[in-house]
Amino acid sequence: MESVEKIKADSQFLLTPRFADKSLFSKEIEEAVRSYLVSLEAQKVKWAPLLKGVILTLICFSQILFVFLSPPASVLEGTLRLIAIAFSVMFFGLNVMHEAAHRNLPGGEWVNMFFSYAMDILGISSRVYRLKHVGFHHQFTNIYGWDGDISETPLIRMAPSQEKWSMHRYQHLYAPMLYTLLTFAWVFNDLERIVFRKVGRATIKRFKAWEITEILAFKFIHVYLFIVLPSLQFGFLKTFGGYMLVQGILGLCLALIFQVAHLDQGSEFTSRESPHDWKVHQILSSADFSTNSPLTDFMMGGLNYQVIHHLYPHVSYRHYPAMQKIVAQKSREHGIAYREYNSFYLAVKSHLLFLKRLGSS
Questions:
Q1: Closest by Cα among 331, 296, 123, 294 to 224
Q2: Distance between CA 294 and CA 321 in Å, rounded?
Q3: Rg of the chain over CA atoms, in angstroms?
Q4: Which of its termini does the chain have fewer beta carbons within 10 Å around, N or C?
Q5: Residues 6+ apart with CB under 8 A from 137
Q6: What is the mean pLDDT of residues 136-155?
């Protein structure tokens, strides 16, 4: 898998967005975080994320296998087991696949590649995701046309510079329904990247023949394992219905977790020329939530610390609570608007109000 530098090199960044020179605030943040990361306290948790990853991997795939070995006795039982699988896959994705995509799991490149390929088996190309998420979303957060996460569909207006349609006035009502299609759409969007070679306004280099073969092979494996094979046992209609139920739960939950972190009432957007340096822009375009909840930290793999994750995407989430205190304090000292919601509910509410405002303004 490519490094972040290689990902950027593989994209033809023409007239890319530019940020201001590094500020005193950013220099102070870097020094404080560097001091923490070399401390003994930071070293104590080195292998914990990998252990958690192994456990979640076993839980996730054993649940899927159990459906084949012990078919549900009723529709209700089958539905409940599919819901359990959806949440199991979600926790696995947040805690393991996302960390592996950022190469944050301890153990080196091969360990992270191994867990990344679990994403491919579940239908989403880890290679394309790493390009789009690590190479574009993290580099150009909330810059419409460059951040692929807010440039995917014209059906939802996610940035002030995006063209407004009359239907957008209702987007706060229908957006959650569209979110249920997120992960299902990802299965096909990977193929679109191969053909049209676009992430937002950026043109990416052609995928090599072996990369295309790898992507297509995993798509075939995914369809065979989760559509063809179970159809032989349960029938196509039941299989596809169950498949879409899992995808719907996954799509809605993942979309909300990621969207509330960047599309809330206080989110800042910028054009190609940002008045802020990169770190300040990341803070102003991101928000944390539920950072006082150990349970939320555990379930979401630290993605409730979205500000910290965007400032330091290549640091393990186990360090985020300590780093958040540093960033929040420095932000107060320099008058930077660091945002945090006390609960996920309040973050979702702010996101929907943002969509309502952007759809009607």
A1: 123
A2: 10
A3: 20
A4: C
A5: 147, 148, 149
A6: 86
